[in-house]
Structures are given as structure tokens and as C-alpha cells.
Amino acid sequence: MTMMTSTRHAGWLAVAVAATVGCEDWTRLEVTPDQTSTIAATPAATTTNATAATTTAATTATAAPSGSLGVTGASGGFLWKPVSESNGKLIVLLPDQYTGSISTVFIAESDGTVVEQGSFVGVFNGGRAHYRFSQVGAAYGTGIYVVADLEDGTTVNWYVANGGTRTEY
Prior knowledge:
By secondary structure, this protein is of the alpha+beta class.
């Protein structure tokens, strides 16, 4: 019983560590079948390309949003998560093909007016860049866009019909 209890405590500790680093994927906690051996958290928050993450972080801090909507971004990996587990506010994940080439990410109205610029927090969950915002998704309203200005000068966007609803492309 003592071993099982300490194993459970180790598991909760692994979850707490994952929450601290901003991991939004809780599916990778591994426990042995007998519940008495070891427990290991396979970090879902794995940077798949450290150089790309560093480059993205450095440029995001200094770049100003373009105010342009550009063209529709690629599907397969975009996520608008209106309430994140870690801080209860909006987090946006971009498809992995943009990782390392993003200059800035922002929320915009349909005419390109910048509502808020996101803060880059890292590359997690399948190599996708994560951007946090200051409010819950519902606070941004309806008919909005997530816009990414890329380092090559192009701009891509994803339409979010309702800021309070999880949106995936």
C-alpha cells in the first residue's frame, strides 16, 4: 500500500511539473500495470527543434503585427483553445510546418485591426508553436482571426467563428 501511495504521489508530481512548463497535453503519463514499479511522465512538452524554438522566441519578442490577414493558413495542427489548463486563458497552437518561421502571432478583426499580440511560450505537442493571450477565448468575441506573420514576409490566418468555442483545423 505504501508503494502504491508513493507511486500515485510521483504521478501527481509529474502532472504538476507538466503544468508548470506549460504542457497542454496530459495524455502521456505512464504507470506500470502492477502500480508498484516505477512511474514515468513522458514529456508531451518536447521541443522537437530547439533551434527553431529559439529563433521563433527571439523574433516574436520584437516583431510588430502587420495588420494584414494574408491567406488562409494550413490545416492539420491549428488549435484555438479558449481556456487552457495551465492558466485558464486562451492558448493557440499553430501547425508544425510554421514552427521556426513565425515572426509574430496576433488576433485580428475581419479588417485586419490588431486586437492583441500573442506571447510565444514554446514548441510542444508535436512540434507546434504555442502562443498565450491575456484573456479567455470568449472575451475576443466572434468572427475573429488568428494571424501569423512569417519571417519570409507572408501572412497566414485561421478564422475563429466563436472565441468561446474550441476550434481546430
